[in-house]
Amino acid sequence: MSYELKSAGALSGEPCRYGRSRLLVRGPQRSLDDPYVAFLGGTEVYGRFVEFPFVDSLQTRLGMDCINLGSVNAGLDSFVQDDSLIGIARQADVSVVQMLGAQNISNPYYRVHPRRNDRFLQAHAALKALYPEVDFTEFHFNKHLLCTLREISCQRFEQVQEQLQRSWIERMSDLVEALDGRVLLLWLRYELDAETGFPEEPVLVDRAMADALRPKVQGVLEFRAASAAVAQDIAGMIFGQMELPAARHMIGPKEHLRIADALADRLSPLVRK
Description:
Helix content: 25-40%
Structural class: alpha/beta
Order of helices and strands: EHHEHHEEEHHHEEHEHH
Strand content: 15-25%
Oligomer: single chain
Shape: globular
Radius of gyration: 18 Å
């Protein structure tokens, strides 16, 4: 099977920044003068390798501006620590917040990059004490770190997982509170290849964590998607010659349309007409 390989620069909506934010989000940059819905999330909300992400489709269906604040490799900390983007989302009619993986947040065990939250920066004393045999300078990505810790000791890894999940609930609660609870959570679930070390995205997020947030938000939309490889949707994507392996793990344009359909039904009662 062959694919039409195009430059990623062919995508509509070059990355842009809003206000004083240092986070690159999906363009085109839109006016914030009229009523709008804000979308905060990672690679899936950004729509990597997809010309028209689900946020674009929703703008047409809802008949109002939709501000895509999704950023490639962003995690929860990317938004909690960004006053400019929080301010934009706070002024929205409602904000759709993707439930991002629990592995990509700073916590009592380790620190992640402030914007590219998938990057591991430093192990704290608690993690060094829990895993004294590990040389943490060998790790650059959180998933690699966690897979190695689990292989060394499942019992000790349970302590790390429990702390990550507690930190995730606290951080998500802070974000929801900052947005006055005018939030629809998007629990976008899809299976990962076995080689990634975890069964599905979002990593280490379970139903108990979603349920802990339900009383604080307008609702939770749980959506089971399929990767472009599983959905046989790669031909509709735009990527460079060396990006095919990454594109296979992303969500393709057909799935983005399905997500838009599901979100349109949930958002219509929550926005001004």
